[in-house]
Amino acid sequence: MLLQTNFQVSETRAFFEMLREEMQKTPEAEVGTLTETASFTKILDIADIIRAQLHDIGSDRDAVVAICAEKSPHSVAAILGVLSSGLAYAPLDPSHPDTRLTSILDDLAPPVLIVDDATRSRFEVWARRSGTQLLTFSELPKTVPPVPVASGAQRSLAAVLHTSGSTGKPKRVLIEAPALDAFQSWVVGEISIDIDDCVLSHAPFAFDLSFLDIFASLAGGACLALADTKTARNGPKLVEMMQQHNVTIWHSAPSALKLVAEAACELTLPQVRCVLFAGEPMQSRLLRQLFRIFPNARFINIYGCTETNDTFFYDVPRIDTPDPLPLGRKLPYVDYILVDNADMPVSGEGQGELWVRCPTMMRGYSDQQLTAKATGWRDGVGYYRTGDMVRRDANGMVHFIGRNDTIVKLSGVRVDLNEIEACLQAHPLVDEAAAYVDKSGDTAVLNAFVSSKSDELNSIDLRLYLMKRLPTAAIPRKFTISIQEVPKNSNGKACRRMLEQQLVETQT
Q1: Which of 113, 298, 346, 415 is deepest in the core (most CB within 10 A)?
Q2: Which parts of the sequence belong to the AMP-dependent synthetase/ligase domain (predicted)?
Q3: Dist. CA 343–CA 355, nearest whole Å
Q4: Same domain membership, residue 224 and residue 278
Q5: Under 8 Å CB-to-CB from 261, ≥6 apart: which residues?
């Protein structure tokens, strides 16, 4: 059964129509990278051209168009063009290996894949085999044909994201237009985004952090600065982008802010008025550096996941800053409970697994069995089981404790250790494998223990093997290759805690 909410989004117009109307109020606002910009007027024109190209697909409420292109004004226009057609967009990260992307596309089976010149060649063979139309930005018509705008239903599917899956196959997350509408409405109101702002978009469009960047910016009439893949990994370029575009609102994982801190040196960026961070713990040392670099900024720690979007936030004080930072308090439209090991609610002060329901919650996974497993029921109401163990203090503040499963967040990216292990164990020379995280330093480091009787296996081969199948964040930094079996607990399951705590005989 798919997850449902009893909340109703106040905006009854179709989500894309609302965005179009708001963008038309600030036609000269811009979307840009370090090398190109386009006005809202130009973005909407390109969106209309793309909408016309998609017109023959029809108005199936669950039809999906995939997009695999570098972040640019055209890729933003592509998202709007898909939404304005009454279709859902499925963004793919072009930095991921081809094997992973084509596997996702095989499962998704989109009628159209939108690409740029750089990504087109990677999918031409796949497109011929699958019968999928490739729509390339450089080959779009230059004029807008008179195609009527589709009227999207309020409950129509709007976006499809893919998260790490325990079987090695990414999970497909289905997100509806009202969920995006409810979220952008809260962001615009809470941060007061308006025409004087410029939001820096750091996360790939395939990552749920991009919902805030794209939709809250456009709905608020703010400019949008897009950090493409190379810029996003380059601290000096990120600083240059903030200066070039006069960025006032930053949103990313803390690891990206660390790049900025390392590049900024003694520089300050007083025009930045809000710094939002999510996806991984913020180190206190880094936070102190950021307070100096952004002297006028409000700092907000945001908690959420792909399945629910953001659900908790914490305004970080500059004086007496707690360490670690709490998750904070729930967003106004969020309902949550803590449950114990017997799935019974924990009242008042205490700890348990966090269950959440809200209007920004996903419709469900494409696999209904996964949806059922992720759904917790109380009094006939479905909650999303986050898998996060949290503590609620006497003041109602919520604090993160840890995970109750194999999901970890590295550099803001959610990674399933089971997925890494499944890929490693598919290698013909690997007998067993266990992935684990070393948290002994300031930054969590992903490692892997591999059991093999082969003298030919080495860490370089394993790294190259995984690079063809997994995103960069899921590639272990260190491989321990041993003739020993993976350490087991009393139930015969791999014991990651033992790997974290003890040294084993290795061969490299």
Answers
A1: 113
A2: 21-365
A3: 10
A4: yes
A5: 235, 286, 289, 290, 293
> Is the separation of the CB atoms in 205 and 214 below 8 Å?
yes
CB 21 within 8 A of CB 85: no
Q: What is the pLDDT of residue 6?
A: 40
Is 90 exceeded by the pLDDT of residue 174? yes
Judge if 162 and 199 occupy the same domain.
Answer: yes
Q: What three-state secondary structure class fits 445?
A: strand
pLDDT at 503: 41
Residue 9 has pLDDT above 70, yes or no: no
**Are 240 and 253 in the same domain?**
yes
Whether residues 190 and 78 share a domain: the answer is yes
- Indicate the residue among 403, 431, 463 that finishes a domain: 403
Q: For the segment 177-210, what is each residue's pLDDT rounded down to a tens digit?
A: 989 999 999 999 999 999 999 999 999 999 999 9
Same domain, 384 and 465: no
Given a contact cutoff of 8 angstroms between Cβ atoms, the answer to whether 312 and 318 are in contact is no
Q: How many CB atoms lie within 10 A of CB 192?
A: 13
CATH number reported for the structural domain that contains residue 100 in this entry: 3.40.50.12780
**Counting every residue, how long is the chain?**
508
Does the pLDDT of residue 7 top 70, yes or no? no
Residue 502 sits in a domain whose CATH number is 3.30.300.30
295-326 burial string, b = 16+ CB within 10 Å, else e?
A: eebebbbbbbbbbbbbbbbbebeeeeeeeebb
**Domain residues for 372?**
330-403
Kindly state whether residue 323 falls inside one of the protein's structural domains. Answer: no
Query: Which residue(s) pair with 289 in the sheet?
Result: none
Give the predicted TM-score (pTM) of the model: 0.85
Based on the domain organization, do 206 and 71 belong to the same domain? Answer: yes
Looking at the structure, tell me whether residues 205 and 265 fall in a common domain: yes
Model confidence band, residue 441 (pLDDT cutoffs 50, 70, 90): confident
CB atoms within 10 A of CB 43: 24
For residues 51-67, one letter each, b for 16 or more C-beta atoms within 10 angstroms of the residue's C-beta and e for the rest, the string is: bbbbeebeeeeebbbbb
On the question of pLDDT at 502 being above 70, the answer is: no
User: Is the four-CA dihedral 319, 322, 327, 330 of positive or negative sign?
Assistant: negative
Confirm whether 2 is domain-assigned: no
What is the model's pLDDT at position 184? Answer: 94
Q: What is the DSSP letter of 57?
A: G
